[in-house]
Amino acid sequence: MRTDRTFTMLKPDAVEKGHIGAILEKINASGFRIVAMKLTHMTTNDAKAFYAVHSERPFYGELVEYMTRGPIVAAILEKENAVEDFRTLIGATNPADAAEGTIRKMYAASIGENAVHGSDSDENAAIESAFHFSGREMF
Length: 139
Ligand code: UDP
Ligand code: MG
Fold this sequence. Notes:
Major role in the synthesis of nucleoside triphosphates other than ATP. The ATP gamma phosphate is transferred to the NDP beta phosphate via a ping-pong mechanism, using a phosphorylated active-site intermediate. This protein is of the alpha+beta class.
C-alpha cells in the first residue's frame, strides 16, 4: 500500500463561492503534486456510495443533498505522508474546531458545509481515487 497519495474533493460550497483557485494555491504551496484532477458533478447514487460508511448517521441525507447540489473538484494529490499531512492542512471536520490557517478554518461555513474532503487512511485514499478516476487519468 503506497503512503504518498491522498484523495480530495473541493466540495460544492467551495466551488459556489469561487474558492477553487485559492484552495489549490494553498495545496500546491504545501508541497502536494497534482496527480489527477477534474470538475465533476456527483449523482445521488455516487454520493450515497462514496459516503456509504456514514449511511446510518443522522446527517447522511443532508450530506448526500449537499454533495450533489453542484459540481465539485476531485483530485489525487502526492506528497510523502500524504494522508496525514493533508488532514493537517484541511483542519478539523468542524471549522469551529479547526486550527488557524487550515483550509476549513479559512473557507468552511459549518461542520456540514466544510469546503473540502481528505481521505482518512491510505486504503481509503486508494478506494476513493479509483471511485473518481481511471488509471489513464492519473499522471
Ligand atoms: N458531516 C456532517 N455532520 C457531522 C459530521 C460530518 O454533516 O456531524 C459531514 C461533513 O461534510 C464531513 C462528512 O460528513 O466532512 C464526512 O464526515 P467525517 O466524519 O468523515 O469527516 P471528515 O473526514 O470529512 O473530516
Ligand atoms: Mg472522513
